[in-house]
Amino acid sequence: MTINGESPGPTIHATQGDTIVVTVHNKLETENTGIHWHGIRQIGSPWADGTVGVTQCPILPGDTFTYRFVVDRPGTYFYHAHYGMQRVAGLDGMLVVSAPDGVAEPFTYDEERTILLMDWWHKSVYEQAVGLASDPLVFVGEPQSLLINGRGVFEPFHCSRAPNGSSDAACNVPRPAGCAPRTLFTAVPGKTYRLRVGSLTSLSALNFAIEGHSMTVVEVDGYYVRPVVVDSLYIYSGESYSVLVKADQDPSRNYWAASHVVARERNTTSAMAILSYAGNDPRAPPPTPRPVGPAWDDVTARVEQSRSLAVAHPDHVLPVPPRPDRALLLLNTQNRIGGHTKWAINGVSLAFPATPYLVSMKRGLQGAYDARPPPETYDFRSYDIERPPPANGTVASAVYRLALGSVVDLVLQNTVALNKKSETHPWHLHGHDFWVLAYGDGKFDPERDTARFNLRDPVMKNPVALHPKGRTAVRFVADNPGVWLFHCHIEAHVYMGMAVVFEEGVDKVGRLPKSIM
Ligand code: C2O
Ligand code: CU
Predict the structure, then answer these.
(1) Which of 4, 120, 311, 383 is most buried, with most CB under 10 Å away?
(2) Backbone angles phi, psi at 304, to 5 degrees
(3) Counting atoms of ligand 1 from 1, which one is nearest the CA of 80?
C-alpha cells in the first residue's frame, strides 16, 4: 500500500505551532483505513488521532477524511495506518517538526537527513492476521527483509553470513543490478549531520550503525537527552532518535550503514545502505565486509543503552510530579482464550468495540463497551514470571477511567510467554508522553522499587521498551481530555490484544466532527 504512490510516504515537514491539514482519500478497493499521527498529542483534537475503534470509525473504500491538528512540539515523529495490522503493508512515513526560527536547540549541526527503518514480509497483512486468529496459531514469522528508507534486499539469511562465495548454489546467484545497496546520503568531509532515525517495524527490534562513525544521541522521541555517544543504536518500533554524525573519516572511500535484527533470533538478512563521501562513486560498495551487527541476544547491552538514554538534557529537565495519584501494575502475559492465543494485560486481552469509544462515550451509548473496569494490578507477591501463565484470561473492551489532571504511574511487568520465552515490547501511549522512571530486571516490588525511581532528571519519551523478564516504570499526567490507546507497538501483538484504553475528561471534549462517525 502506498501514499501518493510511495512507501514509505513523503516526509511531512512542519514548524512548531503549525496546523497540519491532511486529507486522506481511501483508494483501496476493499479495505478500510485510518491514519495515526504518532507522537502528536492531539491536544484539543482527540478525534484526529486516527485510531480506528478508539477515536474514529474507519475511512471506508472511496471515502475521504480530513485530519486537522496542531504540532505543538519540535521533534521527529511519524504517521502510519492504525487499522488492524495495516502498517505491515507499508502505509507509513515520517513527520518532522522543526523548532521555530530563533529558538536554539541544545546542539548544532550543518545538515539533516531522515532515516526510516522498517521490516518487510512477503505474506500479506490478511494472511498474517488469519494466521494469528487461527487455532493453532500461525505466527507471522521473521521478516523476509529489513528496509532502510524503503529499500532492502531479499536473500537467504545464511548467504548473508557467508558473503564471499558460499558452497550453497542458492547463494552464488549474481544479484540483479538493481539490488545494489542504496546510497544513504553523500557526506561532505568535516560536516556534522543530524540524522533523524526512526523505526516503524511491525515486529523487529533493531540495531542501527554506520561503519567507522560514532553517533551522539541528542533527541529521543522529541525530547532533548543528555548527549550520549554510541557506536550503534538500539531502536524499537515507534521510537525516533536524532543522532549527530561527523563526516570525519577517510573520505576516499564509502562506509556501510546497516540495520540488524536484535531481541529475536536473527533469521533475516540485515539491511545495508552506503554512506558515501563527496567525490566518490556514491554506489561504490565499501572495501570492507558487510557488518554483522551485535549478538541478537545481548539483553544486557540493550538494557544499558535504554538506561543511559533515560536522562534529560540538563537544560531541558521537565519536572516530574513527585508522586502519583494512581498506580497501575500491568502484567504482560500470553493466554489461551477461547481456542485462540492472545496477549493479555492483567488477564484482559483488548478487543475493540464496534463503535469507537470516543463516539459512544460522547453520545452516552449504553452497552457499547465493557463497563466493568479492568484490574489495577495482579498478584505480584506470588506470581512467577519465569513460568508460562495460567489459562485464566478474558477478552474485553474495558477502559481505565482516569481523573482529569491526575498523575498516573504505569509499571509494565514482563514475563515468559507460552513458548517459555520473554520478548521485548515497545509500549506506546497515545495523547501523552511519559517520564521514564526506571528500567528494572525481574519482578517489580512496589515497596522496594518505587523508592528507586529517578525523579531528579528523567527524560520524557514515548514509546518505552519493556525488556525480557524486566519491568519498566513510567509516569504521566492525564491532562488531555479524550480516549487514548496504550499498546505494544508490534503489529501482531496489538492484533492479539496487547493494549489497554484510558479515558480522561471525555465530558470536556468539544463537539465531535461528524466525519469521525
Ligand atoms: Cu505508532 Cu498506536 O501507534
Ligand atoms: Cu509486544
Answers:
(1) 120
(2) -60, -40
(3) 1
* Residues flanking ion ligand 2, Cβ below 5 Å: 425, 488, 490, 493
Helical (H) or strand (E) element with 307: helix 299-308
pLDDT tens, residue by residue, 266-292 = 999 999 999 999 999 999 999 999 999
d(CA 516, CA 55): 8
> For residues 79 and 240, what is the distance between their CA atoms, to the nearest angstrom?
12
Which positions ≥6 away from 157 have C-beta within 8 Å?
Answer: 266, 267, 268, 269
Cross-strand bridge partners of residue 64: 25
| Distance of alpha carbon 473 from alpha carbon 345, whole angstroms | 15
Helix, strand or coil, per DSSP, at residue 414: coil
Q: Is the CB of 87 under 6 A from ligand 1?
A: no
Whether residue 483 contacts residue 243, with contact meaning beta carbons closer than 8 Å, is answered with no
The Cα–Cα gap between 155 and 162 comes to: 12
Q: How far apart are CA 263 and CA 339, in angstroms?
A: 28
Judge whether 155 and 181 are in contact, CB under 8 Å. Answer: no
What residues have CB less than 8 Å from 329, skipping those under 6 apart? 346, 376, 377, 378, 380, 411, 413, 444, 446
Pocket of ligand 1 contains residue 93 by CB under 6 Å: no
Strand 215-220 and strand 240-246: the pairing is antiparallel
Q: Separation of 238 CA from ligand 1 center, angstroms?
A: 7
Does residue 80 have its Cβ closer than 6 Å to ligand 1? yes
Could you identify the residue written with the cell 486537522?
68
Joined together, the cell numbers standing for residue 190 give 568535516
Could you tell me if the CB of 428 is within 6 A of ligand 1?
Answer: yes
With contact defined as beta carbons under 8 Å apart, do 415 and 332 qualify? yes
**Residue-wise pLDDT tens digits, 22-72:** 999 999 999 999 999 999 999 999 999 999 999 999 999 999 999 999 999
